[in-house]
């Protein structure tokens, strides 16, 4: 039954995505970035609706009181495709730091490019980091939160949280709070895809880390808090 529900979701989600692909020519002519983000959120809400009512996979948010009132850097662990999609609803107008390869995904890639997101090419090394910082500065100046997956890639829910280098430099340059976020989506939507399983994904917002620390201090505090929460929510 789990496999049947998951396959049904795939079919319906494909049709839903194709429908939004049909809007692209119109948005190319008259759509602003804000309009593209609004349409993207509708697409994601539809995907979350299908997950809930077809697969039986829902989510719950905890620690909402910890979210800063203004723009911030959101640091989230990364276990599945779910949080990449859901971020557009959890954080309206979010600017996601994403790998440039995602721009090649049909429909999804076009919406990413035109929201706009902050895309990076890891092969560029320090130049990629500078572009990331510049893109984040622009987004924050527009009042948009910036979402970074500091682990760099999706990981098993049983692997400890470990940041890649570069996050500390972003924090040091931007002078805004950091909101650590922990999800356990990998328990229901695996790294390599496969069947989506019913259940409830936990999205846990931890106490924000203020600006003004050294980059290494921020990383140590965020990593310790997120790892403890990963173990707690399972």
Automatic annotation (TrEMBL):
Chain ranges passing through the membrane: 12-32
Keywords, alphabetical: Acyltransferase, Membrane, Transferase, Transmembrane, Transmembrane helix
Domain Phospholipid/glycerol acyltransferase: 72-186
Pfam family name, one: Acyltransferase
InterPro entries xrefs: Plipid/glycerol_acylTrfase
The organism of origin for this protein: Phreatobacter stygius
Name this polypeptide is given: 1-acyl-sn-glycerol-3-phosphate acyltransferase
Coiled coil regions, renumbered to chain: none
GO terms of biological process kind: phosphatidic acid biosynthetic process
SMART domains reported in the protein's UniProt record: PlsC (SM00563)
PANTHER family xref list: 1-ACYL-SN-GLYCEROL-3-PHOSPHATE ACYLTRANSFERASE (PTHR10434:SF40)
GO molecular-function term, one example from the UniProt record: 1-acylglycerol-3-phosphate O-acyltransferase activity
Top-rank lineage group of the source organism: Bacteria
Pathway: Lipid metabolism
